[in-house]
Amino acid sequence: MLKVGVLGAGHLGKIHLRLLNESEKYQLVGFYDPDEINAKKVADEFGYTYFPNINTLMDAVDVVDIVTPTLSHFDCAKKAIERGCHIFIEKPITNTLEEAESLLTMANDKGVKGQVGHVERFNPAFLGVKDKIENPMFIETHRLAEFNPRGTDVPVVLDLMIHDIDVILSVVGSEVKQINASGVSVISSSPDIANARIEFENGCVANLTSSRISLKNMRKSRFFQKDAYISVDFLEKKVEVVKMKDAPEKPGDFDMILQNAEGVRKQIYFENPDILPNNAIKQELETFADAIENNTEPIVTLEQGTKALRVALQIIESFKK
Predict the structure, then answer these.
(1) Residues 173, 233: one domain?
(2) How many domains does the chain have?
């Protein structure tokens, strides 16, 4: 079992602590949080070991799980890497691109593994259809959330949209060509609602909308590709797969047949992929343990987390134009 320590005991940190404590792949050594009052409260309530010194905790573990505010990601990860610890780091990977690239270099030099917490990659709905998403040419995403003061210290792009950016980059095998975006600050000092259009070198276009001032919650992505439409509802954990194939010469009474202007006839049919229930956060943490133990590449690498951050920052920069 890998010895793990958690940095940060806020809302998400407490979830990580519970799941790591339950996991058979990790031994939870303890946690550190700079808020001593909150840290002692968490320790008393749940029985986790509180380390009042961050360095002492890092010296006692193999893996450091960083669930702190984004501004502190780089400093925490740097300390962990210097001690030869593997790092799991919540999204976004760091506050700046320079910090992310520096972490990449340090991790490679030290030979440690890192994974970024882009949890939607482990959403059971996405896992159920990701192998069916092949060369999508148009993608549309909506990630809407009711207002919550937690997270408003960063633009909605880094808070919410970055989830969809990472998913899109994972299925589009092409470099970004151009980005156009707009964002509006309504309640916060940074944009609360944003729309971005990403054009890729291979011709794929992705249109992303994110809001944290919506009256309802929505996390839905739609992928359009040759002879297929795939819808993924990350919130309800449901999928819809609509496909087309050449129509049979003698279609059945209930076959759905379309004919275009050129006379080409296609049959529409539906697929129902298996959606296997899971705890996405627990799965991302445990697959990281597997990558360490088996010396394989993590599912969401530091490099991929850096690419998602790069695109997110390009979107934010586009607001100014």
Answers:
(1) yes
(2) 2
The tens digit of pLDDT for each residue in 291-316 reads: 999 999 999 999 999 999 999 999 99
Examine the pLDDT at 267 and tell me if it is beyond 90. no
Give strand pairing partners of 270: 242
Q: What is the CATH number of the domain that holds 16?
A: 3.40.50.720
- Give the pLDDT confidence score for residue 320 in this predicted structure: 80
pLDDT of 255: 77
- CA 269, distance to chain mean position in Å, is 31
Q: Write out the residue range of the structural domain in which residue 81 sits.
A: 2-112
52 and 105 belong to one structural domain: yes
pLDDT of residue 261: 76
pLDDT of residue 73: 97
Residue 315 to residues 43, 67, 172, 200, 305, Cα–Cα distance (Å)? 40, 24, 18, 14, 15
